[in-house]
Amino acid sequence: MEYFKTIATIFECDSTMDFARTVKYLINPPFVVRSYIQRSGRGQYGRVWSSSLGGLYFTEVLHLDNILGFSTFLSIPIIRVLKKYVNDVKVKWPNDIVIGRKKLAGILVEKSDFVYSGVGINISNEIDNEFIKTSTRLSDYAKVNETDLFYEILEEEERVIGEFFKNGFKNFVKEYNENLVFLRNEIEVESNGVIRGIVEGVGEYGELILRTKDKIEKIFSGTILNFYK
Prior knowledge:
Blueprint: E1 6-13, H1 16-23, E2 31-38, E3 56-62, H2 70-82, E4 89-92, E5 96-99, E6 102-111, E7 115-121, H3 146-167, H4 173-178, E8 186-190, E9 194-202, E10 208-211, E11 216-219, E12 223-224
Parallel strand pairs: 1-2
Antiparallel strand pairs: 2-3, 3-7, 4-5, 5-6, 6-7, 8-9, 8-12, 9-10, 10-11
C-alpha cells in the first residue's frame, strides 16, 4: 500500500472507530484498523451495526481538512469492487450500499483531530433477527473471501483518493449518480423536517438535490424515509 502504509488487524474490539482513536497515539495516520468482530459496532446516528464473525469491519484514519463529500466519495471504490461480485449493488444517499431494498454495507465518517471513516460490509456473517428483513449478505450472491475483499477495496481507494484530495468529489458525481437509488423518483427525506421531492442526483459536495413543487432543495445531511421496509 502506498497511502495506507500501516494496517492493524485484531480479532475483536468494541468498534474499530473507537479502537482507532486509541491507537492513534501509537500509529501515525494514515492507517487502517480491521477487526474480525465488533461487540458494539455502530452506524449513522448511533444505530447498531451487527458485526459478527464473517463480515468485513474496518476504520481508516487520515489527515483531511475538509470532509465535505468524503463519505459519498468512499462509496465509489466500494461500489466498484462489489460490482465485481454482484452487479445489482446501488448506493442509497448518502453512503449505504444496498441490493434492492436491503442494506449490504455502510460507511460512517467522523472528524475530530483526524478523519475516521468506518466501513462495515455483510459478507457471510450472521445477521441479527431484528435486521433480517432489512439487510443482506454478499455471500448470498457470490463466493467472497473477506481479506481479499478488504485489500481490493483499499487498493481501489488508493487509485482514486489522490483525485479526491486534489479536486474533491466533483469528478465522481457522474459515477455516483449512475449508481444512485431513486434517481428521478419521488422520495421523502428527514432533514430539519420532512422534504418531499424528485431526486435529481447529488452535487459536487455530495449533497442530495431534490426538485420539490416550489424549488430545488440541496440537502447536505438527512435520512431517506421508508426505504428499509
